[in-house]
Structure formats: structure tokens, C-alpha cells
Amino acid sequence: MRITLVGSRHFGVTTLNMLREHGVPIVRVVVADAEDRLAAGAKAAGIEVTVQANPKLVVASEIGPDTDLIITAHSHARIGKDALAAAKYGGIGYHPSLLPRHRGKAAVEWTIKEGDPIAGGTIYHLADRMDAGAIAAQDWCFVRKGETARELWERALAPLGLKLLADVIDYVKVHKALPSKVQDEQFATLAPSLS
């Protein structure tokens, strides 16, 4: 199972570390910013780093050779169809909500703002529409009273994302396919930016 990891920041680094601890070969790390901490972590581990030509789009030439699966971890770039086609199993990402609820940016903030008593995370297939691909894995957690978005992310949602990613990778190793369940569009919400 050869992985190209596309991401940034702390969650990108923790995903990189989880993959390495899980014994999964990472053939390339793709970042939008050469100064990002994920780029530094990958270089320190001796992993090839590619900086996206367009920070909003990852193309096939940026995907590592013989990649089986593309994983995104805190990436705001779209993975182009050509890039997905370059990987045997396409690509997956982690979204910190129970998709199709709170699609888009600021999902954790909207979970808090809406007063949701339950939050969760979803591993989903990367697709043309943002956060709309089939669900590969999903799990939930309770939201504590008075908890901030950052507290919820750090306490429950980031660790949940790492666990779900590892579970899906293990599934693919055994079944040679990604699990897939179509999202129910009648429950879809788009979380607008909170800027």
C-alpha cells in the first residue's frame, strides 16, 4: 500500500506519523507551502516533498509514482480527476463532521454553533464536489457542554480521524478496495465560512 499524502499543518504531521507508525510506505508528501511543518516533517523522515504548482489544485504529476491511495490531511486543495486516476484506489480524506452534515470549511465550528450534542468524523472518497464523495468510514462522539471547537477537535475529532484513517487503510490492505456508502443528500448541509 503506497501512499501519497497531501496536507498541511499539525493534522498533516500527525497523519504522517500515524502512517509511518502503521508501517505504510509514503512515496511522496504534497504541500501548498514549502515552509509548512508537514514539509519539514516529511523531509526529516527522508520522504520526497512536492510543492503544488497551484495551491488550490493537485494534479497527476504531483502524485508519487505507483501510488495506491491518496490521503488528504488538512488540505484545502481539490485533488483533480487526473490525480485521482493516477492512484490505484483513488483518494480519501478526513472531514470532522458526520457527513453529509456540515460539509465545507469550519465544520467543527458549525457543530458548536448549531449546538449539536453529537459530533463525528468521516473518511470519504475524494470527488468533484466538496465533501460529497461516498463514505468509507464514520464514527461519532458526544460534545461536552461548553466545549469550544478547538477543544472538541483536540480531545475527540483529531484522534478519531487518525483511527478512522488507519481502519480504512487496514480494510484496503485486506479487501483490495475502499469501503463505500453513498451519502444521503436529503441530510446535506453546507457549513459556510465563519470569517
TrEMBL record:
Name of this protein = Methionyl-tRNA formyltransferase
A Pfam entry, by short name: Formyl_trans_N
PANTHER family the record matches? METHIONYL-TRNA FORMYLTRANSFERASE (PTHR11138), METHIONYL-TRNA FORMYLTRANSFERASE, MITOCHONDRIAL (PTHR11138:SF5)
SUPFAM superfamilies reported for this sequence = Formyltransferase (SSF53328)
Q: Which residues form the Formyl transferase N-terminal domain?
A: 66-157
Where does the chain cross the membrane? none
